[in-house]
Amino acid sequence: MIDPGESRSGFVAVLGRPNVGKSTLVNTLVGEKVAIVSDRPQTTRNRIAGVMNLPGCQAVLLDLPGFQRPLDRMTEKMQAAVNETLGEVDMTLVVLNAVEPVGPGDRFVAAAAFAAGNPVFVVVNKTDIATDAQLLAQLEEAAGLGPAEEFFPVSAATGDGVGELRQAIASRLPEGPAYFPPDVVSDQPERVLVGELIREQAIRLMREEVPHALAVRVLEMEPREGGGVIDVEAVLVTETKSQKGIVIGHRGKIIREIGTRARREIEALLGSRVFLDLRVQVRKKWRQDDRMLDELGI
Description:
Layout: E1 8-15, H1 22-30, E2 48-54, E3 57-63, H2 73-86, E4 91-97, H3 104-115, E5 120-125, H4 132-143, E6 150-153, H5 162-172, H6 190-205, E7 215-223, E8 229-238, H7 241-248, H8 253-270, E9 273-282, H9 290-295
Parallel strand pairs: 1-3, 1-4, 4-5, 5-6, 8-9
Antiparallel strand pairs: 2-3, 7-8
Helix pairs in contact: 6-8
């Protein structure tokens, strides 16, 4: 617990191989949706900061891209962001999946976290779908990954165990002032968050070959004259014409469904009615284009 009058703050890296639930965990710790969620690898591309505010403490949670072998300029930059961040944070959460055996990817992530020299908590996520035997086995495996300070079985989906993790993070951070005002939950501009919400819905509707080659650029986001509605214009970028056809769908069915689902999420984020105009364009080899990657914040 934090003593009355004491102020603690710091940066916390959230690490794990793809699909262990890092983004869901960050959203639950923050108490609001700041990172998109899907079961596809490479969903998280940017270093997204979610701000967890507690009495006397502010933790800036860095939801990092999953560790991966760089295959193109985009994944090179994603992995570089992970490596750079590990040397800058005050502590690290290594997230494991309670229902999947600890494998080489988990060990690689944990080794990188321990090598950075910061305090490490190991979080075993998805306890809501794990049997007692699976959870016990994972905790035993987790204990062999390295000198973690504490181990936390949690369900980011239901919130079970997350309160204890919040308090442990707060008590372990160094003394210092808050980095953000208390009502701020992310360091990302609204335009970036809107683009991510569109990409999230597109990923959920796409076949396997498309999500990695898909990006979203928000071109305009302006309140309509007279108020009450925000007009959002965005472009979904693919690398090939065939991918563009998949995103659009037969007679525009898929792109309309993306728009319908994304609009609900955007309206919840902005607290306003939204008119969402989506288009699809082809930009060959955009994942090798530094200018495009900079524009996307990767």
